[in-house]
Specification:
The protein has 102 residues and is α+β, with helices and mostly antiparallel strands. It contains five helices and two strands; from the N terminus they run H-H-H-E-E-H-H. Strands 1-2 form a two-stranded antiparallel sheet. The two termini are 24 Å apart.
C-alpha cells in the first residue's frame, strides 16, 4: 500500500496557480483552451489567474489586433519568485495532487 500525500487547501490553490501559469507558457492559452486541458470550471480558472498577483506572477491578457474584446491569449511576463523549470519538472506530481486526468 502506498501513502498518498494529502494536501491542504492552500497547497492545492498554490498548485493550481503555478500549474496554470506553466500551461500558459506552453502556448497561446485562453480560458476555453485551459478548460479543455484541465477540466477546471471557467470561474476557477479566472479566479486562479486573478490570484497570480498573490504569488507575484505577472500575467497579462493579450488581445488580438482588430478582434473582439475577449479574443486573445494570456502571457506570463515574469514568474516572480517561482522557478518555472521546477514547475515543469514537478508537472506529474502537481497533476496528481490536483486530480487531473491528463
Amino acid at each position: 500500500m502506498t501513502d498518498v500525500p494529502s494536501y491542504s487547501k492552500a497547497q492545492l490553490a498554490f498548485f493550481r496557480k503555478i500549474y496554470l501559469a506553466y500551461l500558459i507558457t506552453q502556448g497561446e492559452q485562453n480560458i476555453p483552451s485551459l478548460e479543455l486541458q484541465t477540466g477546471m470550471p471557467r470561474r476557477t480558472l479566472q479566479d486562479c489567474i486573478k490570484g497570480f498577483v498573490d504569488l507575484s506572477i505577472d500575467c497579462e491578457f493579450v488581445g488580438r489586433s482588430g478582434a473582439r474584446n475577449n479574443d486573445g491569449h494570456y502571457r506570463i511576463n515574469n514568474w516572480g519568485p517561482i522557478n518555472p523549470q521546477w514547475v515543469g519538472a514537478q508537472r506529474t506530481l502537481i497533476e496528481k495532487a490536483l486530480g487531473l486526468a491528463i
